[in-house]
From TrEMBL:
Coiled coil: none annotated. It comes from Blastococcus jejuensis. This is Nitroreductase family protein. Residues 14-182 form the Nitroreductase domain. Keywords: Oxidoreductase. The keyword Oxidoreductase applies.
Amino acid sequence: MAAPLTPDELLTTTRAVRKRLDLTRPVPLELVRECLEIALQAPSGSNAQSWHWVVVTDQAKRAAIGEIYREQFDRYEESRGFAGRLFADRPERAQVQQRVGSSARWLGDHMGEVPVLVLPCIRTGGPFQAVNQAGLWGSLLPAAWSYCLAARSRGLGTSWTSLHLPREAEVAAVLGIPDGVHQGALIPTAYYTGETFKPAPREPLDTVLHVDAW
């Protein structure tokens, strides 16, 4: 049963859930299917609907993916782009970023324990072309975000992650994903604890808005 959220509430309170994912409570596959049925209503280029969805509940496979993710997170945590060290010269932003970094570290350590892992994929039939890929991913990512919104409205938390993608082939081998099908994200899915989600602080719109010209 979906929660009675207005569209604006749903859109502004669907947060990246990490430490508040309930690792002990099983998630019914039927509930995940319900969220994916909603996701399939998203648009895709030429209405091709080239998406595929890999839902991982097997403990051993989740553990294998979790180990790949943890190793990738270790590398990310040492990089200049790590969330926890961004905006160090802006105290009001740095504090938020440090919390994000801590939360992300927790997920890095526990990804393999999350009850359900969802990998949205798209069939390309071959390698990527060396051109702007917005059109390709625009036929998958709206549906993946619709999945996250549907999950939120049904009491499930998600977090959009992509750190595993440099080792996409290894994850594909774990799951038997064929050549010519590419992963767009890794979305851990679990019931969440607490109900205090609220809009997050953001930079003012006018700092990023350009009307008629840059």
